[in-house]
Every structure is written in C-alpha cells, then in structure tokens.
Amino acid sequence: MKKGRIITFILLIIFCFTSYAFAAYSPRLDGKPEQLIDKNTTGYFLWQDRKGLHIRAIATGTPHVFSGSIKTDGDFVDIFSKAPGADDYSNVNNDNDKITFQLTALNQEAGIDLHVNGGTYVTFNLSIDGQDIDPNQIFIGGDSWHPASHKFTFSQRNHHGYPDDDRTVIFVDPGFWWPFLWLDPGPGPGGPGPHGPHHPW
Q: Is there a domain that residue 28 lies in?
C-alpha cells in the first residue's frame, strides 16, 4: 500500500513537471533569425517587431523561386514588397485578407513586409521552385525555430477560429501580437502604420 502511494506521488510529480514545461513554452516571433543575418542559408525567414510582420526569402549558390500564400481573418495593410525577378509579384485580393506571391532570390533578400489589422490568425503556405518547402528551411524568430509543415498558422492562444484544414496551428505568445503594433501609428504609402514614407526598400 505504501509502495503504491509512493509510485502515485512520483507519477503526480512527473505529470506536474511535464504540464508546466508544455505550458511554459511559447514560441516567439520577435527577433530576426540569425541565418538571415549571415545570409548563407537558403529558405524563408519570418519575424515580427514594431515595424510589422516580415517575410524574407534568400537563395545561395543558385537562384530559387519562392511562392505561396498568406491568409488572415483580419486585413493586411501597409504592405511593402521587394520582388527582384521580372516575373515576380505580390498580389492582395479585394478583401485584403489574402496575399499570393512569387519571389526570385539569389544572394540577396526578397520578401514582404506587412501589418495585420483586426486579425487573430495568419496562415502561411510556402513553396520553393514549385514544390512544398522542407519546414527545416523555414526559420522563425530570433530562435530560428521551424514549423512542422510548409503550411502553418500563427494563432492567438485560446482562439479557435483558425481554418479546420490546417496541418499545423502554432499558438504564439499572446504578449506579442498584431494589435500591439498599432499603438503608435503614422502615415505610410500603403496605408496607416509605423513604416512612414521612407521604407528601406
């Protein structure tokens, strides 16, 4: 009987510890991925700061074509893109809730900067050279963590309005989310936001 109580007590401690570990971990979007700073890795690089949500693509050695879509339940605003290829594009639909893009990169950054207004999730579907990209080639935030799939969603915690067909839903730190970015808005050529009239691109 005493042995059984000891085993139960040990299992309870293990359960509490693992529950705390899962609850304590919250992937963050802030911080530029280190691989982007070094510019020696082919892939996508995503992060967020007060200037917005940033998506970059870099190819090393040979040129690659990056394409995909970005979807939200809010509105994309203050959108800037750097698309160096002749056939490159970044298009926003009439509802301002979906962006489709194609970016060609070789030893330089191509990408999109944007803000999300009133949204609770953002879904990415990312490809390279017409194929679903290996998620290990997607680097997110200062920790350069990888999603589980080429298609993934950033969602606020405790929100259940994300699309049902997503393969991966990542609940990000609620202390760092889109409404926070609009505390100090200013004029911008693509709409309101802190970019101002002189975006670095």
A: no
How many distinct structural domains can be found in the chain? 1
Decide if 127 contacts 65 (C-beta within 8 A): no
CA proximity to 154, closest of 22, 26, 14, 19: 26
Give the range among 17-21, 84-88, 196-200 with minimum mean pLDDT: 17-21
Q: Is residue 139 part of a domain?
A: yes
Q: Which residues contact 76 (CB under 8 A, 6 or more apart)?
A: 70, 92, 96, 97, 98, 99, 114, 115, 116, 117
Report the candidate in 165, 159, 151, 201 with the shortest Cα–Cα distance to residue 178.
159
In which domain, by residue range, is 176 found?
Answer: 34-182
pTM above 0.85, yes or no: no
Instruction: Classify residue 23 by burial, with Cβ atoms within 10 Å: 0-12, 13-18, 19+.
Output: exposed
